[in-house]
């Protein structure tokens, strides 16, 4: 049996942050803390526009305090799935986002995770950018 490509209606993969410097730059932007995760956002300046499409980029952080590797990977997959569902409607182009997971991200309902993410996107875009 040959492998088939993804369905034509599937969502594109999430563009991720790769370098530590990118994560550190986003730390200086807007921030929204929820019981499930912390969302940080910062607009990219002219020299940081590495994707040619100007699509939003996401970084995912799940620390060892959250759990063992299996749990951390499951949380990361859940957060990526939530971003795929909510991101196209709420994330702004030319923005970088970092999601820092908390322990309840593993056990909370997926619908609750998605709704919290939508609220967090609205909040970081509404909030004035703080300088830290």
Descriptive overview:
With 132 residues, the protein is of the alpha+beta class. The protein has a single domain (20-126), classed as 2-Layer Sandwich (Ribosomal Protein S5, domain 2). 38% of the residues lie in helices and 17% in strands. It contains four helices and four strands. The chain has a four-stranded mixed β-sheet with strand order 1-2-4-3, sandwiched between helices.
For the structure shown, list the relevant keywords:
Ribosomal Protein S5, domain 2, 17% strand, alpha+beta, globular
- Arithmetic mean of pLDDT: 83
Trace the largest sheet across and list its strands. 1-2-4-3
- Tell me, what is the CATH class? Alpha Beta
Rounded to the nearest angstrom, the distance between the terminal CA atoms is 54 Å
Q: Kindly state the number of beta strands.
A: 4
Number of helices: 4
Question: Taking Cα atoms only, what radius of gyration do you get, to the nearest Å?
Answer: 15 Å
Shape: globular
- Number of spatially distinct domains: 1
CATH architecture group name:
2-Layer Sandwich
For the report, how would you describe the main beta sheet?
A: 4 strands, mixed
Spell out the helices and strands N to C. Answer: HEEEHEHH
- CATH fold naming: Ribosomal Protein S5, domain 2
Strand-residue proportion = 15-25%
Which regions contain 5 or more consecutive residues with pLDDT less than 50?
1-7
């Amino acid at each position: 049996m040959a492998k088939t490509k993804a369905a034509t209606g599937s969502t594109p993969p999430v563009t991720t942050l790769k370098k530590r410097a990118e994560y550190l730059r986003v730390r200086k932007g807007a921030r929204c803390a929820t019981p499930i995760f912390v969302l940080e956002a910062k607009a990219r300046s002219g020299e940081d526009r590495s994707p040619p499409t100007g699509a939003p980029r996401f970084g995912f952080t799940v620390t060892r305090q959250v759990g063992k590797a299996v749990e951390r990977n499951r949380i990361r997959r859940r957060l990526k799935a939530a971003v795929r569902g909510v991101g196209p409607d709420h994330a702004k182009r030319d923005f970088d986002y970092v999601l820092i997971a908390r322990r309840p991200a593993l056990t909370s309902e997926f619908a609750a995770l998605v709704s919290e993410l939508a609220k967090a996107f609205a909040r970081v875009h509404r909030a004035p950018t703080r300088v830290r």
